């Protein structure tokens, strides 16, 4: 039996089922409203791209979970591990690798929280518009409101202290998916399906789509933090595979339905497409389902925000030697983290380019490249040549695409800041 498959010292933590809920709750989010727009950009090529994204991310998630077991097999007290991903890097390549992961991990997770806050502002401004203000200023007000709601929710210690939030995120995702499907069914029954247009895919579009798919299917970087709280960490790969199966079904179903029904009317945020559609003012059921979908997505984003910012908070507290138990230092540090996210969201009030840039840069490295490199190092001399070649091919393709995506989306973010960005 391989080392990563052997029984692991048990901890009074969460089960595999709860771990699966955390995986679904952490991965699903922006994708359910953003991937239909991706289908609009690349047409039916979106389906194989979704399958490829889910396969690569789940594979690398499994490799990262095996790396966790290999790295911490001899640790007596796992409750003292507050930065598992950086410590995996240190076990593989020493302190320079650890410091690199710390910087990239914290930056990427902070920007994920920025994207979630941007989405919350977008949805709230459609759900409860503030008359007399521009759309951008309405979003900024909702950023502030959402931030103050989130601050007390970020005060939990580790995932085992807020296991219910992972379950809540999964339930909200499921409800949102059902409501979106009902709306698509209502629209198709009234207006029928469309024959989607053929879209000419240029290199910049392809690179932007790569970033969006990497972001929406990514999230492996937080998996070691979840795995660390499992009663039996060696079983976490099951949670990863089950979780990604749920994510793929949900993402693909919603995206295909939206593409067939709305086609060119799909905007960057699918719920905005619903709110601005003709049927929204004509059918009360459509309005109700849209409202329930908006509430569910907001609930998911709030819960996912808490899950994703937790590793950042733990890392900051570890660096500054803050006590493990609840204390005033925790309140101050975690409030400052949320305020930094709020300020960034106010400066860049458009989630599309930020989402794609994150997916194509930080997420590609943290979710694909580093898990492969660390696993290969920790299993040094034990991997078959064909496995090494396959993992190397995945790395080369993703890195090349990431470089191109960084160039394309950096230009788009500057356009957003200047107010000249168009979807």
Automatic annotation (TrEMBL):
One of its GO terms (cellular component) is vacuolar membrane. Its main location: membrane. Pfam families: Aa_trans. It comes from Clytia hemisphaerica. Residues 13-403 form the Amino acid transporter transmembrane domain. It is found in: Membrane. Keywords: Membrane, Transmembrane, Transmembrane helix. The lineage of its organism: Eukaryota, Metazoa, Cnidaria, Hydrozoa, Hydroidolina. It comes from the Eukaryota. GO terms for molecular function: L-amino acid transmembrane transporter activity. This is Amino acid transporter transmembrane domain-containing protein.
């Amino acid at each position: 039996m391989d080392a990563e498959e052997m029984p692991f010292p048990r901890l009074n933590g969460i089960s595999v089922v709860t771990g699966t809920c955390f995986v679904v709750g952490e991965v699903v989010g922006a994708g359910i409203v953003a991937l239909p727009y991706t289908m609009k950009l690349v047409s039916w090529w979106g389906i194989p791209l979704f399958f490829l994204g889910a396969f690569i991310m789940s594979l690398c998630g499994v490799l990262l979970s095996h790396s966790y077991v290999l790295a911490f097999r001899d640790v007596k007290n796992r409750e003292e591990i507050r930065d598992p991903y950086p410590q995996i890097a240190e076990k593989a390549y020493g302190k320079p690798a650890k410091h690199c992961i710390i910087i990239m991990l914290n930056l990427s997770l902070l920007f994920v929280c920025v994207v979630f806050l941007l989405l919350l502002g977008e949805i709230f401004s459609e759900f409860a518009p503030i008359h007399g203000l521009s759309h951008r200023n309405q979003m900024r007000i909702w950023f502030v409101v959402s931030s103050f709601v989130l601050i007390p929710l970020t005060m939990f210690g580790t995932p085992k202290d807020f296991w219910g939030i992972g379950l809540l995120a999964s339930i909200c995702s499921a409800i949102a998916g059902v409501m979106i499907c009902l709306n698509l069914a209502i629209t198709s029954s009234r207006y029928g399906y469309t024959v989607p247009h053929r879209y000419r895919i240029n290199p910049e579009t392809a690179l932007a789509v790569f970033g969006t798919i990497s972001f929406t299917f990514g999230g492996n970087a937080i998996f070691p933090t979840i795995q660390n709280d499992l009663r039996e960490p060696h079983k976490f790969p099951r949670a990863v595979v089950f979780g990604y199966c749920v994510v793929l079904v949900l993402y693909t179903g919603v995206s295909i339905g939206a593409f067939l029904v709305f086609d060119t009317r799909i905007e960057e945020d699918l719920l905005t497409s619903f709110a601005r559609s003709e049927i929204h003012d004509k059918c009360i059921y459509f309005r109700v389902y849209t409202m329930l979908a908006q509430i569910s997505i907001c609930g998911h984003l709030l819960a996912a925000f808490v899950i994703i910012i937790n590793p950042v908070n733990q890392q900051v507290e570890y660096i500054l030697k803050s006590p493990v138990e609840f204390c005033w230092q925790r309140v101050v540090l975690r409030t400052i983290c949320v305020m930094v996210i709020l300020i960034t969201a106010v400066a860049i009030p458009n989630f599309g380019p930020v989402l794609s840039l994150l997916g194509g840069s930080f997420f590609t490295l943290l979710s694909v490249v580093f898990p492969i490199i660390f696993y290969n190092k920790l299993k040094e001399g034990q991997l078959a040549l064909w496995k090494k070649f396959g993992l190397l091919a995945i790395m080369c393709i993703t890195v090349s695409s990431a470089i191109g995506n960084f160039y394309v989306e950096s230009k788009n973010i500057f356009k957003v800041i200047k107010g000249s960005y168009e979807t």
